[in-house]
Amino acid sequence: MELIIYLVIGAIAGFAAGLFGVGGGLIIVPILYIVFTQLNYDPSVIMHLALGTSLATIIVTSFSSVSAHHKKGAVLWQVVQNLAPGLVIGAFLGAGIADYLSGQGLQLLIGFFAVWVAFKMFKGAAVAVDTAKQLPSTGMQMLAGGGIGIASAIFGIGGGSLTVPYLNRNGVVMQKAVATSAACGMPIAIAGALGFMWFGKQSDISIPGTIGYVHIYAFIGISVMSFITAKQGAKVAHKLSPAMLKKCFACLLTVVGIYFIYQGFKVFL
């Protein structure tokens, strides 16, 4: 039964990854949080385990998603190359920062972050991208990658909720921003997952089937299905208008954000 749950999570998350370029983490993290809670895992590490496992699955999801986007010529590989060093360093550091935060603190951070990004995306959904704008210098892109990497690891995501708006603001149309974001998810996921494994091992997690803060069985189940469905999501992304993509993305983030804010404040209610 547990494996079936992980397969279903993977199917949904993979489709979302291809559609929004978010690596599926915004769906994987809240669902894993619920599943791990029902399995009576140690409450103090459930959020960390959900984040680490989410990043591990995004390694597979990103590969599947970006291959579909690449075939359509939508990935800006030079931009990925410029952002990658910062993404890798930032994601590993972000895992270390998350390790020091409490589960409740992580819930509130993720919740408010998701709602804020949703507001920004929905507000600009009908606004055409100013293609006259250009991306900043390579050095500035690398610094931006560092910030995106740190935040992505803390939030257990592939960076789409930061990379997509960043590229949009700098003149990249939505479809190419989504495709490039999907490619950026790979270095974030690899460095972030390794970070959560490393810092989790130092914390001596006593949950079976885990390596640090990564749940191996959940990783396998989710990865298998997400690899298949990410390609379908990417195909749908190229059939929708940029404004529609932004609105759908904003709605998804709002639901996730409100859920985690509620969970974070529930202890006070």
From TrEMBL:
The chain crosses the membrane at residues 6-33, 45-63, 83-101, 108-129, 141-166, 178-199, 205-228, 248-265. It is found in: Cell membrane; Membrane. The keyword Transmembrane applies. InterPro entries: TM_pro_TauE-like. It comes from the Bacteria. GO terms for cellular component: plasma membrane. It is a multi-pass membrane protein. Pfam families: TauE (PF01925). Keywords: Cell membrane, Membrane, Transmembrane, Transmembrane helix. Belongs to the 4-toluene sulfonate uptake permease (TSUP) (TC 2.A.102) family. This is Probable membrane transporter protein. The lineage of its organism: Bacteria, Pseudomonadati, Pseudomonadota, Gammaproteobacteria, Moraxellales.
